[in-house]
Specification:
single chain; four-stranded antiparallel beta sheet; 118 residues; globular; mainly beta
Length: 118
């Protein structure tokens, strides 16, 4: 069973940057596509970005395209989300998970809170 731990969240001003990390334990992530999701208060959890098993293919939601970049380091069993030019509407709890397409297929971690002030 893979356990995922998200970190790197915090408070940032609009226009700022953060890098989130998703570290796995219990099992390697290297054979799986991974994704980032977020859930804002009062809203459903939504897909943000995904990356294939090798890191050679990525895709992002239209709402973050050009601002967020997903990457991975399989040697470190970690997936990253670089967030630039952040907006108040990016405020949410961010989660990572194994994915098929844009659908999460594993267990959820506790997530990491990201707050963007205007």
């Amino acid at each position: 069973q893979v356990q995922l731990v998200e970190s790197g969240g915090g408070l940032v001003q609009a226009g700022g940057s953060l890098r989130l990390s998703c570290a796995a334990s219990g099992r390697t992530l290297s054979g799986y596509a991974m994704g980032w999701f977020r859930q804002a208060p009062g809203k459903e959890r939504e897909f943000v970005a995904g990356i294939n098993w090798s890191g050679g293919t990525t895709h992002t939601a239209d709402s973050v395209k050009g601002r967020f970049t997903v990457s991975r380091d399989n040697a470190k069993n970690t997936v990253y989300l670089q967030m630039n030019s952040m907006k108040p509407e990016d405020t949410a709890i961010y989660y990572c998970n194994r994915v098929i397409g844009e659908r999460a297929v594993g267990s959820w971690g506790q997530g990491t809170q990201v707050t963007v002030s205007s």
